Amino acid sequence: MASAPDPSSPRTARVAWLARAVRPERAGYWLFSGHLLTIFGIALSNVFLGLALLAAPWLLRGRRIDWRPLAPLLVPAGFYAAWMCGSVAASFDPLTSLSGLRELFTLSALVLAPLFVRGEREVRRLVDLLIGVGALFGAAGLAQFLLGFGGIDKRIRGPFSHYMTFSGLLLICDLLLIATLVLRPERRKKIWSWAALVAINAALLGSLTRSAWVGLGLTLTLYTLVRAPRWLLAYVPAALLFVVLAPRPLVERVLSITDLQDRSNYDRFCMMKAGLAMVEERPWFGMGPDMVERRYAIYRPPGAPRYEVPHLHNSFLELAAERGLPELAAYLALLAGTAGVAWRRYVREGRDGGPRSDLYVGVLLALLAFNLAGLFENNWGDTEVQRPALLLLAIPFCLGAGDKESGEEEEG
Questions:
Q1: DSSP state of 354
Q2: Residue ranges of the alpha helices (H) in 228-324?
Q3: Which of 3, 28, 79, 174 has the fewest CB atoms within 10 Å, measured from its CB?
Q4: What is the pTM of this model?
Q5: Which residue, 126, 140, 128, is CA-closest to 199?
Q6: 325-348 vs 315-323: helix axis angle to the nearest 10?
Q7: Rounded distance, CA 223 to CA 234, Å?
Q8: If pLDDT is split at 50, 70 and 90, which confidence band does 113 have?
């Protein structure tokens, strides 16, 4: 008769570790995380997200899922997806607009996130990994200065094909990191946190992307006004130092933000007028996905600098013009649902003194900055930026899912 294995033996310990490592929930977590950590290569990111989707029925088998707490997230997301399909059907060219349904694949992350990323520990690990990846991207962007990048015609872009994708991702990582440093004093002792902060913000400046600067600057100003208004006095000497010490092209780029004579600013004004005309003509289902670019020449003002544009450089107007006002309302409801849950949990858990206040504040700040930047750039329509933004939308629900599991274990 075979004897029972010795629980203290190294072999038994290795088997137990391997069993924990390959648990279905761990596999789901790393597949989901992989699609965010490999966002620099959209094909690779798609592979991870696709595997997470395909494996979900097996990885989640036997688990009881309570969908009710996810209603503020999934109800507006479901309406958003359904209206998108209606917009395709009502498009001027449904075959062209059919490609817009690829976004449904990316939106599946909203369902997968609370199922695979559950609880504070897993959320923190993924947020830290995302910040670390953002810091590496920032360092890669800064290294591009050595290769001749840096001018307005050849901006740094890290591993991405476009500088706005680069700055959009860095913006999200930056606000998550800032919230952590402000609300978790122990993290201020970590050298890597400060190194990441320097790399991300230096790269944001070097990208010369004004929409990201506006999003970051307004968000930090509002947060400072609410949390410590006396620190606003530091803006004056900081601005003077910037004007004196910063390179002249950088100062000129900052000053151009409010310059109405700036060609790109006027171009955005023309895009806004064209987009509003599109919405006025077709307010319910819009032009159809991927049709704004094709029909822009019809609606552009006569003096517009360009006859063709890839999009309207405004996330909100792009949604309304492309898919109708109900789609824009669904997007705003999605933002409101997440912000409401994050705020209520932040207050209930003790505001800044709560153990997870940095995560809730980080989500609120990053979403605010993302959407402020979206007034000047279609970052919601950029898949590489949209996917981290979807994680922001899901984080409060991921934390709630972990709380529910902990409560059930205590009752058991």
A1: S
A2: 235-245, 248-255, 263-281, 292-299, 315-323
A3: 3
A4: 0.93
A5: 140
A6: 140
A7: 14
A8: very high
| Residue with tokens 């290569």, as numbered in its chain | 41
In the numeric block, the tokens 């959209």 are attached to: 42
Q: Which residue is associated with the tokens 């490999």?
A: 38
Q: Which amino acid is at 173?
A: C
Q: For 313, phi and psi rounded to 5 degrees?
A: 55, 35
Secondary structure (3-state) at 62: coil
Fill in the DSSP letter of residue 290.
T
Residue 364, both tokens: 């609120």
Can you give the length of the chain in residues? Answer: 412
**Measured between alpha carbons, how far is 176 from 373 in angstroms, rounded to an integer?**
16
- Alpha helix ranges (H) inside 144-262: 163-183, 191-206, 210-227, 235-245, 248-255
Place of tokens 């609410």: 226
C-alpha Rg value of the chain to the nearest Å: 23
Distance CA 370, CA 130 (A): 16
CB atoms within 10 A of CB 149: 18
Q: What is the token pair recorded at 189?
A: 């002792």
CA distances from 33 to 46, 112, 264, 268, 341 (A): 12, 11, 37, 35, 23
Reported as a pLDDT band with limits 50, 70 and 90, residue 391 is very high
Give 302-360 pLDDT, tens digit per residue.
999 999 999 999 999 999 999 999 999 999 999 999 999 999 999 999 999 999 999 99
Q: Which residues contact 80 (CB under 8 A, 6 or more apart)?
A: 107, 327, 330, 331, 334
Tokens of 123: 């959320």
Q: Which residues contact 36 (CB under 8 A, 6 or more apart)?
A: 45, 126, 130, 387, 388, 391
Q: What does DSSP assign to residue 289?
A: T
